[in-house]
Each structure stands twice: as structure tokens, then as C-alpha cells.
Amino acid sequence: MMRFKGLFMNNFAALSSNPCQNLSHMLVQTRHKTSGGSKPKKKVYYRVHELDKVMDLQKKPAVILQLKDIIESQKNKCIFLRDLEKEVGFVQKWNCMAAIEKYPTIFHVSGGDRAPVAVRLTDKAQRVAVEEDEARMLMEPILVKNLRKLLMLTVDCKVPMEKIDLIENELGLPLDYKKSLIPKYPEFFSVKEINGKAYLHLENWNSSLGVTAREENLVREGELKDGGRGKKVKISKDGNYPGPYAFRICYPAGFRPNTGFLEELERWQKTEFPSPYLNARRFNQADPKARKRIVAVLHELLSLTIEKRMTSFQMSAFQSELLLPARLILCLIKHHGIFYITNKGVRSTVFLKEAYDGSNLIQKYPILKFKAKFVALSGRKDSSFADGISHNYRDLH
Q1: What is the per-residue DSSP string for 228-243?
Q2: Per-residue three-class SS string for 256-280
Q3: Strands, DSSP E only, in the chain?
Q4: Do residues 154 and 228 both lie within one domain?
Q5: 375 near 129, Cβ under 8 Å?
Q6: Is it the case that residue 48 has pLDDT exceeding 70?
Q7: Which domain holds residue 168?
Q8: Residue 18: pLDDT band by 50, 70, 90 thresholds?
Q9: Is 384 among the domain residues?
Q10: Are 253 and 269 in contact (CB under 8 A)?
């Protein structure tokens, strides 16, 4: 028993110190003590295969879109194969070459023999590619709003530019956002240098933006009209309760919570907590209400991304700005009805579960619809980009 305890504590320390560790095998080693001589039960982190699948399905579309961006960034709108390694590295070069060969409807190859081999977009792909400008134009007010909300979430209304760079793809920002977006809105943003480091500052606080995505969803569903008092629920079998302080819960099919767990969850769901847009320094972090507020902050942070997911490394990078707990991964695991962590991909990724229906992202922003249309030229239709379940652009404001 002592030997096992030492093994568990070593793994627990590793999990706390490195959020990118493989969660699945480490959690399986956790055991519960039992009375009598029965074999202790393993505590399993239940996988959500549909969300694991999202990470698998995005691999080939990601290569296609990366190649498109590289080709369009070149002066002559084409790239020589000999220069591809400089752009993507030695390993990724082979993935790109395989995509070029596999999708002739998107990539046109010319040259050979004595002439250098060059790759450009086909005429059809070029016609679709020009639609990205319109998608970016539709995205601009959304990006400005979400960037303002991100700064409002932080304790000092400022974030180092290097951290914005870290999540620029997740926010949907254009590659040149520092030149094309930030200077365009001086009434909202400014870049100031502090101790030799560039920070993005919020210029004006707007209380109308201080409404979370969770609250907006509750308003749409009518849950805030009577605060949930019009519905009497004994003990919910799935953990969902009406009311202004409840989160949407979605446990995996194999998870069977007992009555005690559900009773504790009911108390937690009905517990009041301060808004994520109030300064975190005002609250005692040991207070249960403040701890629930942290869940709301994480929920809102993921809601500001275009695909409602970030890597655990990216989330932990905002620890000081959002006053997140040191053991962030453990907080996410505890609330696995709200968040899901997958180890598919290079880094572990955190999903906001309510944002997905199976493997399909429910809300599609204009830039995601454009990407879906471009990837569809390859003849494949991936659920991570498909238009199957989506809302119109006007529903995203």
C-alpha cells in the first residue's frame, strides 16, 4: 500500500506541475479505499470519443489551410517545393507534400525536369480563396468585441502581447492583427510598454459587455425570467438545474453518479457567485463562491474562442492575469461535466462541452464557414468544419 501511495503522489505532483501530461493513464492509477477486503475500484477519467475525434479530423484540413496561407503569402502566389521546408520544417514538409499530391483539385503542380517544381492554387481554389476577405470583414466586429471582453476579464485590463500571440488562432485574429486591427480601434485598445514588455491595454470599460456567454444562453432559454423558481426539480439525474447560477452539465454515457454526488452537485449549481467580469482581487479565493467563480471564468475564456477550445498550456498562460488556481488541470477534471480534456494532438486540449453536439461545433463563425468551403474542395467533409449544425451570423452577436 505504501508503495502504491508513493506512486500516486509522484504522479499527482507531475500532474500539478505539468498541465500537458497524459491525463488518461495517470488518472486510472488513482484508487479509492474500500472497507473490507474487496479490490479497490479504479477512478477512471471517462473519454468522450466524439471530442477526441474532433482533434483527429482537423489534422488534414489544418495542413490544407496551412498550405493555402503559405502560397498566398508568396509574392507570385506560388511556392517552390525546395523552399517548403523553410516555411514548415522538415517533418511537416512531408505532410504538406502528401496533401499536395492527394488534392489536385486544390493544388496545381508545375515544373519538373530542369525547372524547379512549383505549387500554386488551382483556378477553382483561387476563386474560393478570395472569399476569405469577406469572411474576415464579417469577423472584425466579433473579434473586437471578444478581445475587449478578454481584457475585461483580467485583473488589470491588460495582457502581454506575447500571450495574445499565443492564442491568436484560437481567437480568430488575422496574422497581421497588430497592424490591421489594433491601431484601427484606438478608442478600445492601446499598446504600452511596461518593463521592456509590450502590453495590450483596454482603453474603455463597457458594462454592457460584462455579460457572460453562460448568462446569454440562459436568457435565450428563458431560465433567468423567474430564476428557476417556476420549475420544481427534486434531484436531477444528469446534474442540470434551472436558475441564474447553474451551468450546463453533460456527463459521458459511462458515468453513473450516485445520489450523494448529485445532492452535492445540486448545492453547487444553486450557489451564487460573483461575475467573472468583477475584479478577482476583491474576493477571498478560499470562499466557495470565489471557487465557483473560477469555473465561470474558465467557461467564459473558452467561450471567447472561435472553436470553444484551447490547449491547457494556453489556459495556464493566463494564470496571473485571471488569478487562476495553481492546479488548473485538477479544477478542470473536477468539473468534467462542463469541460473535457483530450490528449489527442501535440498538447492536451480543453473543450467547452456544451458548445459541441457530438463532434460538431454548434456555432459557426464566418471564418469557419469559409474554411469549411475551402476544405470541401478536397472532396472531404469533416465534422469539425461541416455546416451541419450551425447558427446564422446574426445569432452570434
Answers
A1: TTTS--S--SSS---S
A2: CCCHHHHHHHHHHHHCCCCCCCCCH
A3: 78-80, 107-112, 115-121, 158-160, 189-194, 197-202, 309-311, 339-342, 349-352, 356-357, 360-361
A4: no
A5: no
A6: yes
A7: 131-136+147-208
A8: very low
A9: no
A10: no
Q: Are residues 186 and 268 in the same domain?
A: no
Residue 218 shares a structural domain with residue 353: yes
Query: Among 199-203, 222-226, 325-329, which stretch is predicted with the lowest mean pLDDT?
Result: 222-226
Rounded Cα gap, residues 351 and 356, in angstroms: 9
- How far apart are the C-alpha atoms of 270 and 293, rounded to whole Å? 13
pLDDT digits (tens, 9 = 90+) for 157-205: 999 999 999 999 999 999 999 999 999 999 999 999 999 999 999 999 9
Summarize the confidence of residues 287-310 as an average pLDDT. 97
DSSP characters for 136-197? HHHHHHHHHHHHHHHHHHSSSSEEEHHHHHHTHHHHT--TTHHHHTGGG-TTTEEEEEETTE
What angle (nearest 5°) sits at the alpha carbon of residue 336, between those of residues 345 and 16? 70
Q: Which of 345, 321, 323, 312 is nearest to 18 (CA)?
A: 312
Question: From edge to edge, which strands make up the β-sheet containing 78-80?
Answer: 78-80, 115-121, 107-112
For the record, the C-alpha cell of 45 comes out as 477519467
| pLDDT for the residue numbered 253 | 80
> Residue 95 maps to which CATH number?
1.10.10.10
Q: How many domains does the chain have?
A: 4
Distance CA 183, CA 189 (A): 8
Confirm whether 389 is domain-assigned: no
Same-domain check for residues 292 and 345: yes
Query: Pick the residue with more confidence: 305 or 30?
Result: 305
State the angle between helix axes of 49-57 and 59-73 in degrees (0 to 180), rounded to the nearest 10.
30
Task: Please tell me the predicted confidence (pLDDT) of residue 257.
Answer: 87
Q: What is the pLDDT of residue 239?
A: 86
Q: Could you say which DSSP state residue 85 is in?
A: H
Same-domain status, 219 and 163 = no
How does pLDDT run across 201-218, given as a tens digit for each residue?
A: 999 999 999 999 999 998
What's the pLDDT at 4? 40
